[in-house]
Amino acid sequence: MAAPQKNRSVLLGRLPLPERNHLADALRTETVGGVLLLAAAVAALIWANTPLKDGYESISAFHLGPGALGLNLSVQHWAADGLLAVFFFVAGIELKRELVAGELRDPKAAILPVVAALCGMAIPAVVYTAVASSGGGSLQGWAVPTATDIAFALAVLAVIGTALPSALRAFLLTLAVVDDLFAILIIAVFFTSQLNFVALGFAVLGLAVFRLLLWKGVRGWYVYVPLAVVNWALMYNSGVHATIAGVAMGLMLRCHRHDDERVSPGEHIEHLVRPLSAGLAVPLFALFSAGVSLSGGALSDIFRRPETLGVVLGLVLGKAIGVFGGTWLAARFTRAELNPDLKWPDVLAVASLAGIGFTVSLLIGELAFGGDPVLGGEIKAAVLVGSLIAAVLASILLKLRDNKYKKLCAEEDRDEDQDGIPDIYEQDDPAYHLRMAAILEAKAAEHRRRAEVASGRTTGDDGPA
Question: Of 126, 178, 169, which is closest to residue 147 (Cα–Cα)?
């Protein structure tokens, strides 16, 4: 009697069609946002390294807002604490959706991105700590190289034109969502200043009201937007980073569909807010955070100072090793096995993209070294350089796999019966096989007719020659 075989799940296997369609919509917005993010970062660097740099510094430091409410902030702080709350609100919705309808809803499937994200954050932190401590540098920046910027990573894919299979794209997107979750926890736990318990209590109360209104089915942006702004302001004044309010409200939205719904409320709001996040909030944050001096001396100092070298090595090496190693561990010690259509170099190429840490890394750098403007500027430059090196290496690896990707994507998108559903999703449908048999018979008949025309036995529809 043959021994029973273990049931193994496919690692990075084909996505269900609804999930694949949602992924395609999300990637289109994130890719456009990533291109805008890249443009904003380049604009900031040019602005800060030309004779117009005084104007850049003046605008970044310009204060506005009601001081009586503790909100008289600089433009740079409004971008980091205010606009990024929108970004984290979308991240909260995406995380909620992944938990109830995406890759994270099944604990067995969730093991892969969770392990990969944890390893992809732990190894860069270890690399930074080892480099900084060996050189006598500050350990405050250990969390800077732990984050992944999904918009920038997808922009790299768009620019180099790689036809990445949907399973790997979904892995990168889910990995970044889990990465954002742990980055939020890091910010909340390690970068919270002295707490104002009164403001924090009112912030919790405001979030409870937000949740109650959602539970009661109250509709209208004019109710939720003012309440969201109040919750954000209270969270800011509490000492907890204000972006936590955005995440909390995003997680409260319902992301599962009822029978009479085409999309859930969370998906609908995400569809409305994601362009605002990717097209405005994040690029403006980059514009007022990426403007650092990149003179020849400053660039060389990045590779000599232990803190900045730790950030670069953490992003370039730590992220790739951590994500790839975490994925390998999941395949080695769980029931998951790699999709036979993919190879480990494919996973390494995507893992190297995780080293693009731009947005959240800049934010954590500001929080970690806000009291030291000189070192804070050098850390920003290190984030930019490390992300650039990671992007270049990832582009090279992806280009080497480009032809394989194109074949896989062509197979995924093939729709012989022209019904709008890729054939690969209909292989178990009897009606699909009947349609395909009819199509093949029609093609065979056309081929025979053309062969007869070529041999001179017929002239087509006019009868025998």
Answer: 178
Look at the alpha carbons of 277, 111, 145, 74 in this order and tell me if their dihedral is positive or negative: positive
- Vertex 123: Cα angle to 300 and 87 (nearest 5): 80
Based on its alpha-carbon atoms, the radius of gyration of the chain, rounded to whole angstroms, reads: 26
In a domain, 208, yes or no: no
Quickly list H helices, 102-141: 107-134
Same domain? For 296 and 419 the reply is: no
Compute the average pLDDT of residues 104-111.
72
Q: Name the one residue in this structure whose structure tokens are 């800060």.
A: 48
The phi, psi pair for 261, rounded to 5°, reads -110, 135
Give the pair of three-digit tokens for residue 363: 């934010």
Question: Phi/psi at 273 (nearest 5 deg)?
Answer: -90, -30
Q: What spatial distance separates the first Cα and last Cα of the chain, rounded to whole Å?
A: 66
What is the three-class DSSP state of 405?
A: helix
The pTM of the full predicted model, rounded to 2 decimals, is 0.74
Maximum mean pLDDT: which of 25-29, 225-229, 253-257, 409-413: 225-229
Q: What is the pLDDT of residue 177?
A: 75
- The confidence band for 125, taking pLDDT boundaries of 50, 70 and 90, is very high
Dihedral angle sign, alpha carbons of residues 409, 410, 411, 414: positive
The pLDDT mean for the chain works out to 80
Task: For residues 335 and 156, give the distance between their C-alpha atoms in angstroms, rounded to a whole number.
Answer: 32
Q: Which of 286, 368, 291 is nearest to 83 (CA)?
A: 286
Domains of the chain: total: 2
- Residue 439 belongs to what domain range? 414-465
> Of the spans 31-40, 137-146, 148-157, 300-309, which averages the highest pLDDT?
137-146
Are 31 and 103 in a shared domain?
A: yes
